[in-house]
Amino acid sequence: MGFNYHSYLREKMMPHIWCSGCTHGIVTKALIRAIDKAKFDKNKVVVVSGIGCASRMPGYLDFNTLHTTHGRALAFATGVKLANPELHVIVVAGDGDAVAIGGNHFIHSCNRNIDMTLVVLNNNIYGMTGGQRSPTTLEGDISSTSVYGSIGNPIDVVNLAIGAGATFVARTTTYHVHQLESYIYSGLMHKGFSVIDAVSACYTAYGRRNKQRYKSAIDMLNYMKNNVVNISAAREMNSEELKGKIIIGIFKDSLEPEYCEEYQKMINRVKNKT
Amino acid sequence: MADIRFIQGNEACALGAIYAGCRFFAGYPITPSSEVAEMLSEELPLVDGVFIQMEDEIAAMAAIIGASLAGKKSMTATSGPGMSLKLENLGYACITEVPCVIVNVQRGGPSTGLPTSPAQADIMQARWGAHGDHPIIALCPSSVSEMFTETVRAFNLSEMFRTPVIVLSDEIIGHMREKIVIPQEGEIPIVNRKKPKVPPHEYKPFKGEEDFVPPMAAFGEGYRYHVTGLSHNEEGFPIQSGELVHQMNVRMHNKIYKNLDKIIKNEVYMCDDAEIIIFALGGAARSSKGAIRHLREEGIKAGLFRPLTIWPFPEEDLRRVCSRAKNVLVVEMNLGQIVFEVERVLSCMGVKIDGMFDSSGEPFTPLSIVRRVKEIFQR
Amino acid sequence: MASRYEIRLSGSGGQGLILLGIILGETASIYENKNAVQSQSYGPEARGGMSKSDVIISDDEIDYPKAYNVDFLLALTQQSFDRYTKEVKKGGIVLYDSTLVHSPKEGDYRLIGLPLHETAVRDIGKSMVINIVSLGAIVKISNIVTIENTEKALLKRVPKGTEELNKKAFYAGVSLAK
Ligand SMILES: Cc1ncc(C[n+]2csc(CCOP(=O)(O)OP(=O)(O)O)c2C)c(N)n1
Ligand code: SF4
Ligand SMILES: [Mg+2]
């Protein structure tokens, strides 16, 4: 029997705004299954987002939901979590949201290691505003603001998260739906700040403009399927072999002091003294 | 025994916040407001509150909104450049009707300007800085005691009306030390936001009651509602209907403008027989009072109208107090901002309005105001 | 409002003038039930260069928080002497350090030169306590607050373990002014 999503959805909000072929729905479903598996009390789940197609997701979910300003979701979420550490705080963000306008918040959230989970719906483009270049747009690719090809290296969300100190970092694609659910679940269970880079597809604003790789929305998923390399295999490959590949897997999983707990310890320490 | 202290305005602000029930502060250091953050970093843990220094002012503003939604009374404090960064999410707090307090200890601008000198040049920014139509409440303390009491009032108003409230102070008031008698517990009533009385499936988080203010549930209390910065309906979901959007905006306007009696507060000093009324706020009002002392000694009938609530603007009170005066002098530490509001409100009343403006970062001396008043009378 | 009394403490950064102002303000407001306001110059000025701290004491409400009609000026450097004596009112008092201020100009004020710095160095053994020596002299000369109350405020304000040293410096100042 299939999974019953209904009890997690605000069905009166349907139809959703996403285009056909958009993979944001795939991430939504994976997130729902992960939360279900985690057996969280719905009343204690808060899903926070910024602005963008990806960020519309919380509106469809029957939790406490907070649709904020572009790039700032993590900062809002930080306030929610610190104010009530009992809550399970999950942030969903587009690539623009997470690492362009929200880049500073991203870095500092990774560094603080507050017990929250960030899922980046990384479609390499600004979907909502019609397909402008994002920091994860691949070099040479066409967007409405890189009509002659995007210049420069895309930001690697995983490397950025690791460098900034996130304690659980994983990547997979929207083709690998079971793995996506499993990584999100691991992120939810992880004590500390977890980042899941969910490689996503936006045919409307990105794929369409890059026919050299994609002829259809389905092609974008097939591309993921055919070009992933597991992290263990990737370690044996050189940079030439890795060109154009998507490395997936769990990149980091470590237990380090968590901010809310450390803060509580500090309170106890100073209150005992006075 | 009375708790008498000799402390800075910014410290009094921090203590006022704790008194009002503030249990969450997020900020980013900036002169001349940092003492607020410094003191709260020390005080909040002692009352199981949270202090966090964020990566910038945008994040700090976001964090206090998040904390307020999770049920904590929350505050941030900043100055000029930081205030500019807060505006994005200040607008968010307005449209989502999230109570919170923003302290702006004004310094000289624009941009980095005069970090350690006072100014009052963010008055219009407080009113209109966030884009879009939105009402706002802004309070202007003029002493260390008022930094305490107006911060408490800011929290009370923000809770009462589900709205962000700005405490618009300035470097003079923020940094000076002055005697303050700390109010006893219970001396100033504390207001807490109203909670829904209906079960979750009947709850409409953005449906105003008779006072136009919707009850507010905290995240985690079982109400599971949606909060968005998009124009939304009473249930909190995005809408396109122009008519509904307009209705929502009008209600948010009404919750402030139809409750003015609960929000407006002024000091009216020696105005009964005054031929000239000085209109001034915050630090400039202290200089003006000094001037009135000298003027009265010389037999010149001068008085002071000092709004403690600058937004919404005290239109009716100002008209009433100025009904018999011949002259009004607006004294402000900027190149002329609130004078336009005074002119608008007193137009057609036959009173002559002058302005005294300065952006040097030096407070007006009482004697400079005395000279100006005499010039006006000699004209 | 004849009771308004304006004190300006001026010198260079590091002479502890802000603390001196705070102790005067605390004495008046906490121990003498008067009103007091203290303000200071901030920014580059307060970082080693010229420093000033104003204290207003009054039985009535204090409006303007800065000194502009100075009753009592303390000048611990020549530069601050030159700059601020202009703002001293007729008949006001100018107390200056007799070694740090080499050419004190006469004016419409009562001029008092005392070896504040020397006393701090010689009698107490710490140039740092020049502010506390000055405090003793100011209180003795101005009579604006009592010596006993100032001692109370002083002892509450200074770091633990330094009470005796500061008390000694304070009374050295009081004696100088006799
Ligand atoms: C401060 C601000 N700047 C710009 C915008 C316009 N804007 C809305 S969504 C968006 C980009 C969204 O891209 P992404 O985060 O990748 O999400 P996607 O739509 O691709 O899911 C932009 C630039 C905005 N809403 N706010
Ligand atoms: S524009 Fe792209 S990201 Fe947005 S809904 Fe359509 S496919 Fe999805
Ligand atoms: Mg995107």
In short:
The complex is a heterotrimer of chains A (274), B (379) and C (178). With 274 residues, chain A is α/β, with parallel strands linked by helices.
Note the main attributes of this structure.
heterotrimer, A: 274 residues, Rossmann fold, eight-stranded mixed β-sheet, two-stranded antiparallel ribbon, 35% helix, B: 379 residues, alpha/beta, 2 domains, 39% helix, binds magnesium ion
SSE diagram, text form:
The complex is a heterotrimer of chains A (274), B (379) and C (178).
Chain A (H helix, E strand, L loop, with lengths): L23 H15 L6 E5 L14 E4 L5 H11 L4 E7 H6 L2 H10 L3 E7 L2 E2 L5 E2 L23 H8 L3 E6 L3 H13 L4 E6 L17 H11 E3 H4 L4 H4 L3 E8 L5 H15 L1
Parallel strand pairs in A: 1-2, 1-3, 3-4, 4-8, 7-8, 9-10
Antiparallel strand pairs in A: 5-6, 7-10
Helix pairs in contact in A: 1-6, 4-5
Chain B lengths: L2 E6 H12 L1 E6 L6 H10 L6 E4 L3 H13 L3 E6 L1 H17 L3 E9 L5 E5 L4 H6 L8 E3 L4 H18 L2 E7 H5 L1 E6 L43 E3 L13 H16 L2 H4 L2 E4 L6 E4 L2 H16 L4 E6 L1 E3 L3 H7 L5 E6 L5 H9 L5 E6 L8 H13 L1
Parallel strand pairs in B: 2-3, 2-4, 4-5, 5-8, 7-8, 12-13, 12-15, 15-16
Antiparallel strand pairs in B: 1-9, 5-6, 7-14, 11-13
Chain C lengths: L4 E8 L4 H15 L3 E6 L9 E9 L11 E6 L2 H7 L3 E10 L12 E5 L1 H9 L5 H13 L4 H11 L5 H14 L2
Parallel strand pairs in C: 1-4, 4-5, 5-6
Antiparallel strand pairs in C: 1-3, 2-3
The complex binds thiamine diphosphate (TPP), iron/sulfur cluster and magnesium ion (MG).
Please characterize this protein's 3D structure:
The complex is a heterotrimer of chains A (274), B (379) and C (178). Chain A is of the alpha/beta class and 274 residues long. Chain A has helices spanning 24-38, 73-83, 95-100, 103-112, 157-164, 177-189, 217-227, 231-234, 239-242, 259-273, and strands spanning 45-49, 64-67, 88-94, 116-122, 125-126, 132-133, 168-173, 194-199, 228-230, 246-253. Chain A is built from ten helices and ten strands. Chain A has an eight-stranded mixed β-sheet, sandwiched between helices. In chain A, helix 1 (24-38) crosses helix 6 (177-189) and helix 4 packs across helix 5. The longest helix of chain A has 15 residues, at 24-38. Chain A starts with 23 loop residues before the first helix and ends with a helix. The mean pLDDT of chain A is 97. Chain B is an alpha/beta fold. Chain B has 13 helices and 16 strands. The radius of gyration of chain B is 21 Å and the shape is globular. The model of chain B has no long low-confidence stretch (mean pLDDT 97). Chain C is of the alpha/beta class. Helix content of chain C is 39%, strand content 25%. In chain C, strands 2-3-1-4-5-6 form a six-stranded mixed β-sheet, with helices on both faces. The radius of gyration of chain C is 15 Å and the shape is globular. The mean pLDDT of chain C is 94. Classes of the chains: A alpha/beta (274), B alpha/beta (379), C alpha/beta (178). Strand 2 of chain A pairs parallel with strand 10 (226-228) of chain B, so a sheet runs across the interface. The complex binds thiamine diphosphate (TPP), iron/sulfur cluster and magnesium ion (MG). Residues 18-19, 22, 24, 53, 123, 127-128, 202-205 of chain A line the site of iron/sulfur cluster.
